[in-house]
Amino acid sequence: MVDRVLSAIPDFNDQSYYFNNGIHESLYEFLGAHPVAEDDSKGFRFVVWAPRAKSVALQGDFNDWRLEAMTALPNGLWGIVSSDARVGQFYKFMITDQVGHQTSKIDPFAHQFEVPPKDASVLTILDPFSWTDQRWLSKVKRTDYTKKPLNIYEVHFSSWRTHPDGRYYSFKELADSLIPYVKELGYTHIEFMPLMEHPLIASWGYQITGYYAVAGRFGTVNDLREFVDQAHQAGIGVLMDWVPGHFCRNEVGLAYYDGTPTFEYEDVRRADNVGWGSLNFDLGKPQVRSFLLSNALFWLKECHIDGLRTDAVSFMIYRDHGSFRENWVPAEDGSNKNYEGISFLQHLNQVVAKKFPQVLMIAEEATDWEGVTAKPQGLGLGFDFKWNMGWMNDLMRFIELPNEQRSSSYRLLTFPLMYAFNEKYILAISHDEVVHGKDSMLGKIKGDRYNQFAMLRAFYAYRLAFPGKKLHFMGEEIGQFLEWREYSELEWDVLERPFNKEFQQFVKTVNTLYQTEKALYERDLDQTGLTVLEADDAQAVILSFMRQGEKPRDFLIIATNFLPQEHRPYRIGVPYRGTYEILLNSEMTEFGGTWTKEEGPFQTFEEVTNGQPYAIDVILPALSTIYIRPKRVYGVLKN
User: Quick one: pLDDT at residue 349?
Assistant: First the structure.
């Protein structure tokens, strides 16, 4: 029986070696369910890892759900060949532990599951896909996103839009509406919150059971491939949230898979993620490393995903982060570093960089760890970008303040300038900032609707000009008032109210400027691309700076007034003699403001201002951001 099963598994010894040494890069082709012939006429082979199980049995539609004993194979694997199994049938593994307790389990490598609350794995063949995105792939291979626009629209699949009866959109329906919407509004990428199989919609996808499958309520892996292919044809990249730190503890899933700690840490103090009610992957166990490494590569290779946003990196690199603080287990050197997690992330990022150099690896890391985007050596983790959580926290605190408290809190605006280039940052205003009583972006701002929208416009334009790549969560671009709810679609009807449609047009305008003005992205991660002009005017609460592209003439001056008080005139330092003009004024009537026409152009006069040799006088509207560009200047090197 062993020989029959092994003969159905190509290169078993080599595959086992890679698996057990934590370096297998396509484990989903080795474990799980696979046809034993090119078609499914001869059934499937099933292989599962349950190293300390007493026995394992297969049951499914093809055997009337009777328990069919699987054969113990080397290295903790169990296998069986079923000549009766067919595509589309349901199945599970029955694990019997060493004390005789039986638990019904999913196949960790299944590519499809029943829609919750049902949970059986579905027999699926991952056929080759006819991709038509060669032009996109060729383009991104030549793209250095450190010097190109990166403006991400974060989406929760099932609540962007729903049908009137509450049904979720299909991938096809979402492709037909979301992709052109994102392109029209000037974003470069869509980022999906986790799409992998998860039993509870309220977890937003962050408590996963099936890592190699798209959630059944959303569709199939092939449906996702179709969506990505269409996005790429439209010139839009697709990113996915990925959760390699912890997993759902539902009994049917990965939790204590063989009746003992299998995917999780042996020490319950390290295994239990009390704050989230989940279990932490044992990132030092080679088989788990193979499982996660192969999973990352699965989405990149099989689905052409353009990048992975790795969730909760802090929990992977520290032993005392979050809910671990009261009962944490020190490393052998007595430190709070999780060296297994650090090592795994370094290896992951090295492999991805080698195999998919065009892919973006992004870290959600909430501390001041040095080297998240440094080379993967020492304590450097090797990510391409890191969410700038410090900037986000400071700015969220600031915009929630009433006007009279902003002057005394001016440092919340200026402190992020001190570390803006410590890492390769993405400025993320994500779903986490508009839930759990935190209010929507609009709802955070004090005052009447006019002043709320004026501040929101000023903030949005300021953020697009601040150094770092960009991400914001769906709904902000329409000025949604209610905080996000995962169980209902966005408040699209607000676009019929005053200011909302105008704000959406403003977002489109600024997003377009971000993609066309080289000063806003070419030196985004280089300190030479930023010159701070005014960061000391706490009384007026005004911040101004200059952004510089690679060519001397490619520069913009940005000034933001965070109080409802106009400044006429307002003097701003400029680097060259000549004439300047307004490129953007967030208070124009077309955006919902009160300005009917632009002022200017502005002629310089010789006066050292903001450290610059020349100056111009402009009008800085209340609660506004203005972009100023050179129209005709002298003394600058020719392009």
Answer: 98
Q: What count of other Cβ atoms lies within 10 Å of the Cβ of residue 398?
A: 19
384: which DSSP letter? S
Average pLDDT over residues 161-172: 91
320 assigned to active site: no
- Which of the residues 311, 517, 534, 554 is marked catalytic? 311
E strand or H helix that includes residue 504: helix 500-516
Q: Which two tokens stand for residue 476?
A: 């902000």
Residue 28 DSSP class? G
**CA–CA separation, 539 and 553 (whole Å):** 32
Do 341 and 352 form a contact (C-beta atoms < 8 A)? no
Task: Give the tens place of pLDDT for each residue, 433-484.
Answer: 999 999 999 999 999 999 999 999 999 999 999 999 999 999 999 999 999 9
CA 36, CA 433: separation in Å to the nearest integer?
A: 49
398-412 pLDDT tens trace: 999 999 999 999 999
329 or 359, which is more confident? 359
User: Are the beta carbons of 152 and 471 closer than 8 angstroms?
Assistant: yes
Task: Respond yes or no: is residue 311 known to be catalytic.
Answer: yes
Asked if 609 and 572 touch (Cβ cutoff 8 Å), the reply is yes
Confidence of residue 638 (pLDDT cuts 50, 70, 90): low
Percent of the chain with pLDDT over 70: 98
- Max CA-CA distance within the chain? 91
pLDDT at res. 526: 93
Alpha-helical segments (H) within 129-234: 134-141, 157-160, 171-184, 221-233
Q: Which residues contact 152 (CB under 8 A, 6 or more apart)?
A: 187, 188, 189, 190, 191, 239, 426, 469, 470, 471, 472
Determine which one of 97, 364, 483, 534 is catalytic: 364
Q: In this structure, which amino acid lies at residue 330? A: P
Q: Of 43, 30, 27, 48, give the one whose Cα is nearest residue 105.
A: 48
Question: Token digits for 315?
Answer: 């929990």
- Residue ranges and CATH numbers for the domains of the chain are 2-122 (2.60.40.10), 527-634 (2.60.40.1180)
Residue 52 DSSP symbol: T
Contact 294, 27 (CB under 8 A): yes
pLDDT of residue 118 exceeding 90: yes
> Please, which pLDDT band fits residue 630 given cuts at 50, 70 and 90?
very high
Residues 307 and 228: their CA atoms lie apart, in Å, by 12
Asked if 26 and 294 count as a contact pair (C-beta separation under 8 A), the reply is: yes
